[in-house]
Structures are given as structure tokens and as C-alpha cells.
Design a protein that fits this description.
Blueprint: E1 8-15, H1 19-27, H2 29-35, E2 42-48, E3 55-61, E4 68-79, E5 83-87, E6 105-113, E7 116-124, H3 128-136, H4 139-155
Antiparallel strand pairs: 1-7, 2-3, 3-4, 4-5, 5-6, 6-7
Helix pairs in contact: 1-2, 2-4
């Protein structure tokens, strides 16, 4: 798929850890919970079925006691240790959804890099307005923070 600057947002970084470690951090619920929401928020992984059609459901907490819905999505495509694609436009029960703040499809790709893993996120939106809204709401900061937390987790610095 090609990147459309009118509809898509992207983030890329090198993670200094093997691709298998990055993949495990995405596919192991106990690891995902450690980095998936920007700190100091806490994440609970409610369902993680990493296969096409599988559920991706998380909750977040600001106080560690009360959790609220965070992500109710489904995986669209999985290429082992290489790519995960999920959307929140279809929920974990395979029903059409109207997620807040914006509907999106996220493609996470991992490739070998001399220093570890080339990690790339492309988030696709249905309209330029949805893309602009996601960008204004802090795509770079939010997804960037989460990518940094993932890197710290697999690099052993968190």
C-alpha cells in the first residue's frame, strides 16, 4: 500500500532490539500492557487474539483502580514477526463501529536493521478531515510516546 499524505499519518524509528523481541512485545498480553498506553496511564489487555479477525481490546486507568475502554478493534492482517494490521472501524465482535476520537486502520511493520529493528507505523484514515483531527489530537506525541515506551521495554531500559 502506498502512503497518502492527505489520509495517512506515519512514524518510524529504529528500535535497538531484535525483531522477534518487538513482535513478542506486541503479541504477548503481559508485555503489551507494559507499554501500550502513554505513561502514567496503566493498560489492561482484555483480549488479544493475534490473527486475522482476532480481537484487540484494551482498557486504561489513570489511578490503577478504575479502567475505562481504550481500544476495541480487530486484526485485519498478520504476517508473523513482520506486520500487524488492525482497525477500530470494526470492533472485536466484528460489528461496524464509530470509535472516538477517530476511525483508523493501523499497520505496524518490523524489518531487520543493522542496529535492531526498523519499526514503522502507518495510520490510515477515511477522510482528510479524520486525518487532520487525529494529527491535531496528538498523533505524533501519543504514538511517539508509545513507540518510545515499546523501545525502552524491549531494549531493557524500562
Amino acid at each position: 500500500m502506498t502512503f497518502d499524505p492527505d489520509l495517512d499519518l506515519a512514524l518510524e524509528r529504529v528500535i535497538r532490539a531484535p525483531r522477534a523481541a518487538v513482535w513478542s512485545a506486541w503479541t504477548d498480553p503481559s508485555q503489551l500492557a507494559r507499554w501500550w498506553t502513554p505513561a502514567p496511564s496503566l493498560c489492561r489487555v482484555d483480549r488479544l487474539d493475534v490473527r486475522p479477525g482476532g480481537a484487540f481490546v484494551t482498557s486504561l486507568s489513570e489511578d490503577g483502580a478504575e479502567y475505562v475502554p481504550h481500544m476495541d478493534a480487530c486484526f485485519v492482517a498478520i504476517d508473523e514477526v513482520e506486520r500487524l494490521v488492525f482497525t477500530n472501524a470494526i470492533d472485536s465482535a466484528w460489528r461496524p463501529a464509530r470509535p472516538e476520537p477517530v476511525a483508523m486502520t493501523a499497520a505496524i511493520t518490523m524489518a531487520d536493521h543493522p542496529d535492531g529493528t526498523d519499526y514503522r507505523i502507518v495510520v490510515r484514515h477515511g477522510t482528510p478531515e479524520a486525518r487532520a483531527r487525529h494529527d491535531k489530537l496528538g498523533f505524533a506525541e501519543g504514538w511517539g510516546t508509545v513507540a518510545a515506551q515499546l523501545a525502552a521495554h524491549v531494549e531493557g531500559t524500562r
